[in-house]
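hi!! sorry for the late reply, been swamped w classes. u asked for the two structures so here they r. pasted raw, havent cleaned anything up. first the sequence of the first protein and right below it the tokens
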Amino acid sequence: MLHDASLRTTIEMRVRALRPDMPPRWGKMAVDQMLWHVNESMAVALGEKEAERVSSPLPRPVIKFLVLNLPWMKGAPTNPSFVARARHDFDVERQRCLRLIDAIAAQPVAGIWSDHPMFGRMTGRDVSRLHAKHLDHHLRQFGV
């Protein structure tokens, strides 16, 4: 989880290792689009943005459990609010990513967190785990 200083430091180092010309190992997003994508989801978790509420074919608690606890497949569906349709400034998005990671880690785990667009009510521990897992997934997509 991003509240674990050691894991957060590792993720931040991996974000800093990204380069604007890195090709993805899978998927269609360029690295700047991937950064925008993870940034948008973290901004929603922090209440800085709103995202389209989406439903799941499974009950919310079931899908939340699966997403938090099982490995993610490549090319998994995403909330339409988080689909990068344009290119973005790599340096701006990388700095924004680092700021958002710090902002999530600065929030008290036991505090009040914004509802997730698919999972609904989330604990701070779940939010921190989800975004650490999301970042790891996409950093692996770009080989870092």
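now the second protein. again sequence first, tokens right under
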Amino acid sequence: MAKFDHLTLPVADWVRARDFYAGLLHLTVELEAAAQGTVALQDSRGFTIFFQETATATPPDGVALYFNVADVEAAHGELLRAGAEVSHGPRKVRWGYGLEVRDPDGYVLRLWDERSMQEHGH
């Protein structure tokens, strides 16, 4: 079976993407290639997202990135304090229970935790 382990997303500013994902979602910087306008960030399981700076960075409609966090309520508070664009706080939605936020490039991120998901019937 294949293992999905890298994804590249176009962004307007790779440093801004790095700061958002490393600072707020606590992803680890795997590598930076400033000359290529690229940063690679890794989650706690080894999945890597490359953020590649490009002049035509527009998130496609219908794409959402889902992140399992330790505590969705705590993540919500941290995102609000940081001034992130929170679309809605933790609540029951069609995909489960969690919050939705947009990153600085407009990508939709959905954050959830296992405890809250179970408590709300998912």
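hope this helps!! also noticed smth abt the second:
The chain has three helices and eight strands.
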